[in-house]
Protein 1
Amino acid sequence: MVHQLPSWAGLAPVFALAGSALLLLLADSVDPDTTNTGVLSGISVIGSLTSLGLAVWFIVGGTGIPQSQGGQGTPTLFNSQLIVDQMALFFMIIVASVTALVALASYDYLEGHSYQAEFYSLVLLAATGMSLLSAANSLTTAFIALELVSLPSYALVAFLKKNRGSVEAGLKYFLIGAVSSAILAYGISLVYAATGVFRFDGVAAAIDSGVVQTVVDGTVQAQSGSPEIPMSILGVGILMIIGGVAFKTASVPFHFWAPEAYEGAPAPISAFLSSASKAAGFVLAFRAFAVAFPIESLIGGPIQALNWVVAFQILAIATMFVGNFAAATQETVKRMMAYSSVGHAGYVLIGLAALSSTGEGLSFSMSAGMAHLLVYGFMNTGAFLFIALAEYWGVGRRFEDYNGLGKQAPLACGAMTVFLFSLAGLPIGGGFFSKFYLLEATVNVGAYSLAVALIVNSALSLFYYSRVVKAMWIEEPTGDRSIESYPTGLYTAIVAAAVVTVLLLPGFPAVSDLATQAVSFL
């Protein structure tokens, strides 16, 4: 007999992150001057791993699968404003994994810094928002969760108060983020004005029927005499929501904040924002455009509004080329990785771009995009944590500063090599299969322009990733450099990320099946 979880229990992974953040604030209030990094980092890591364990337990146990199909059912809260389905749990796994790695690495990185409890609590609060965003089933709850992600992130980017670059990056991130939030909020208001509802399924019902809907006792329905949906208002609203999503995912032309924020922020925070925050932005995109704005109804139903598939195809190609070509011209490793992150946003956009004019291929392309995000979470986080390790040792920012580092730290440099080659799509880690599945998604629907862009940009990325590998293993050091300590936390996080990246190569079919199952129950 299948026992369904109570609705509130579905958010247990979110509660684990939020509870850990509150516990950190309590510990700081008891001893405001504490610099016991081990305790603070331990609370953060345990809270993140608890969230990860709960999410894995739920998704394996069938939460999000209808009871009629042998699952636990799908917990819903607040009149279905939040829904804990398989997709929500999939992205909670990504967020919790990245948060655990970042919290573990920060144990060494924050040594000697003030405000350590505030740092960890802000990380966990941002992760709470990301996990909550993955379960959002309406435009309002999605916006609230997105702001819970954004506000701590602004402070984290500017955490190095005595570093002018960090403070400047935080200020730029805040200003651009405020404009982005305003655009997204205005887009949401226009969609509501056009359809009469916020819930994703309600918006879809309005678009399918062509008339304004209302929610009565949790049920979406049209009232007698409901007016028709104004096409122009809905189209502008959808376009503005695309702009808000493009900012959060660092997609062109709303990507300018990313290189500045990633370069100025502490390296663990760069890893956190470029991996977990990007995943949170994409879960909003996947839910909104797959559920709320069904393309077959928008272009073939009673109303004719914006064809968002074409918009995402343009965004994907532009983001891939701008991100990778900019990365190839950089002279510092961290900024190169920042632009590389922009390029990978273009790859994941294929999940919403590799569709036919009738929406055919959405299930496969979205599952491929989700699988790539999971693999990317480990290999990109690991690469940024290696940069954090280099900063800990006092290694410079330029490529030549990494010369000969492989002879002094072969284990860490070996892990970095795995990350970079997997990011490029070589068969050394899960990135090979995730890019292959994205390529297959484009070919299946005849989106050959996306396929060509993916191949060309992957080849280009191999060029600039190889510059780091060459510097570490082939080039001779340009000056005297001594490495006196090998920080436990950073090393453990880097090696753990590398091991998972390699294991995801043979284990990728399981990840792909899980992503496909999540999309099928969306």
Protein 2
Amino acid sequence: MRINRITAAALCAAGVLASQAALSAPMASSTMTPATVTAAAAQDLVTFGVYLPLRHQAELDALLVQLHDKTSPKYQQWLQPADFIAQFGPRPEDIAAVKNALTARGLTIVSTSAHGVRVSGSAAAVQQAFSTPLLKVTRHSHTRFQARQPLSVPSELASIELRVTGLDALPLKHVHARVLGKVPPTAGDNRYSPTGPYWFDDLKQAYDYPAYSSSTDGSGVSVAVLMSDLIYPDDVAAAFNHEKFTAITGKPAPSVTTVAIDGGGVLNGDGSVEASLDVQQVLGGAPGAKVTLVSIPDLSDDHIMDGYQYIIDSNKYDIVNSSFGGCELGYNPAYNDGQDLTYILQQYHDLFQQGNAQGITFVASSGDEAGLECPTPDYLSGGTNATFVTSVSTPAADPDVTAVGGGNLVTTSSTTTLASAYVRESANADPEVPYDIYGLGANVSGGYWGAGGGVSTIFRKPLYQILANTGSSKWRTLPDVGMQVGGCPFGISASCDPDDSAVIIAYDVDDPDNGGFFGLIGTSVSSPEFVGALALYEQQLGKKNHRMGNANYYLYAAGALQTLFGGTKAPAELQFYHRNNPGFNGVVHDSFPSYNYNYVYGNGSPDVRKLFGLTGYKAAGVPQTSTNP
């Protein structure tokens, strides 16, 4: 296969769409399809979650700082799940009270965790237990039940703070990737264009990964990819075989295992392309890592939380990738008929805090609506003048998550070599035509395609962000770092930027008509890509205690050191990040709030060997060679 100077923009402009129809449904969030809405029938089975908040929050916040402070005797003394729950978890008697109250009302406890319970029962029993009628909403064969008014907690639980998930009208999270089109079988490798589209080993040379060896392949590190649906079994091997991994190394292509939560997802479902991208990007950077796809039925909050709960309780995974997100503002009362649902974001935060205390690192894509993640509230009520507003994506906005944004990579290009060395990056977001973001029947105008970033309105500024000029003295900002994202999706209102780029993955390669290799863009590219780099770093920490918890403490310390010694003019050995990348995210230019931190790249894009102390290893060289298979 050879792509003769085909860029991301060219994939779009040239109409390389032979299999776009086959992939358009899996790539779209199920919230994009018009819904069938009816009153819940009494016998309908309803399932939802009930959580209780953590205790001793001040003590927990202090412990998390100590666990990440090299001068503290508690540094990296990670807790086991039972120890965490004993110190900070809800009281067992409160969970027992919840179980008793709900079972007394005819509901069934499906499972119990240290944070709460998963509950099921007939719609009639749920409506009676919480004194509210339910609506039955079906999209893409997924059925959800939504309370038509605020829940009324059973009287005997009035003294216990309950957080109910799965009975609200919040839209599903979005995957953060889009398919540009199928790479023609008569085309070929991406190395003949300075803007790709790129294979995983092109990115490794560009971002200065260490040369491949058993010491720099992520061995011993376990990664969970949380995503809806399943991947085709032969796609990972197809991607690695294309780059001659086995022929060069003599080793089989990496593999992936799957764990199904809440029944898991389906093959070729809404999240399948995204799951394939995530797995291939992680393994592309760290082929020796043990990667598990934690498959959930859809990207609703209750299923996502169940996935995180499994990851945290099992404590088997060192790093977690989440290439999805949604509107942070959408949990506020203005978006929910006056009901404040931000307690759901606090429950996510409780889970992330426990994971960090156990040494688990959470990484999430920062969103693809640039600095304009959310529509105005009137969109939800059918308004015709809805616009996108300055806002950020969740879960990336949580301070216990590393948010990954980025832009467009430009590399060296030659007709005589596969070399893909770093040249520069840019991040000019692509203006979008108005579109119906959640499929509710009204278009939203003023949007941009590009890496998400900006200022949270929910989470306070974390301690580690004191080390950077983030433009806010009060609130958490994102992203934290950036890498290759790409641009030029369908539905933009102007010409593609010349730097717009993409990556290539394998999808359903055993289907000669609809499957093959595809160009993809989005922060779903950069997030798992960075997870692969983190896996190389954690491998160096050793087998006994190789976890790093909240990676942001490390990332901002490195950024502050580079800034202290001159930023882009710091000595070569302190150039941990590529900075001062030009661009615009629909709200501010990438020089804001400073050249050392902005709302598209965060601290910058990494020089992986320098950032993670791997300069003792040779650099990954030309793709498809022994240093970069």
